[in-house]
Write a structure and sequence with these properties.
By secondary structure, the protein is mainly α. Helix content is about 75%, strand content about 5%. The chain has 2 domains: about 140 residues, no CATH class; about 140 residues, no CATH class. Helix 1 runs antiparallel to helix 5, helix 3 packs antiparallel against helix 5 and helix 8 packs across helix 12. The protein starts with a helix and ends with a helix.
Length: about 290
Amino acid sequence: MMKKIVSYATHDTMYLKAVTYLFLIALYIPTFYKLFSFGWKQTDYSHGPLILLVFLYLIFRKRNVFTTTPDSRVHLFSFLLLFFGSIMYALGSIHRVVMIESFSLIPVFIGTTGFLMGREAFRQVLFPAAFLIFLVPPPLFFIDMLTSPMKMFVAGVSESLLRLAGYTLNRNGVILFIGDYSVVVGDACSGIRSLISLMAVGSLYAYLQATSNFKRVVLFLSIIPIVIGANIIRLMLFALITYHFGEAAGQGFFHYFSGILIFILSLMSLVVIDVFIINRRSRHAG
């Protein structure tokens, strides 16, 4: 008799979990429709569908968490997180702010999982859910606020390095004057686009490494100087190609494919930092 009661309770719990997550999927279908229709059409966030696929893959790797028996404790923090996320969803939906509405999925998913299945499940889904932050297009004013100082910095450092190399040039804001040509530091050369994409890739790379959380954080934070340095190299090469071979050469093949080149270079730099710096120090410390 006791076994039957336990069996019924287990089945009831599984049904509750299934119904809850199906409800969440149904709740966020309109949100993803808005993202597909508007948010992911932005150049900086065209990678949105890939982020969603990676999230589903990460959740699939943690699928055993969803079949565990929940503990009997009341998880107040998870409930508060769920409540906060629900308020965010309601406000975003009512005021038609897609950023807030889609961002609410993170606390709602984490809070729901922790409330239904306990602290260990909460911990296991924390990164996959947090990874969804790259799914959410930030407001344009925030991107502009970051882009302008990054453009100025990249232009200033590029000017200094080219002067050290013996080239005569002048700078006016984000415009470099070299020879008879002027090179404008566009949004792409600022590094914000590659920074967003590489932070997503870098966070996933760091998460999948079998190392300490501290080393993962160091690896993730190293993406910022890597991207800035790569875009300085990109601008310098663009200026030199334009200076030596003409504007057509600079605006041609290199201009269109330098983004891919810089992305690959940045990824290689991330791997080098992981293999030859972090791991080497770990071996010496051991």
